Amino acid sequence: EEGMTGFIRWVKKQGDVIVAIEGSNGQSKPIEKALRSAEIVFYSFKPSDVDKFRKAVLGQNKNNKKDAESTARYAMALEAQGKLDNWKRVWNPDEELQGLTRSYAQKTKESTREINRLWKLLREASVDLYLALGGDHPDIDITENILQNEGIMALLTEKPDIFEWKTLSETDFLAVMGNFNYKGRNKLIKELQKVSRSFRPISPSISLMIKNTIEQIILLKRQLKEIKKMIEKQTKDNKAVKTLEQHKGIRTMTASTLYAEIIDIRRFAKDDNLASYAGLVKREYKTGKNGKEIPNCFFNRRLKNVFMTAARNYVLFNPDSHLAGYYRNMVKNGMKKTEARKRVARGGFQDLKQVDKTEKVLIFF
Question: Which of 29, 51, 348, 365 is 20 to 30 A from residue 39's alpha carbon, by CA?
Answer without folding.
Answer: 51
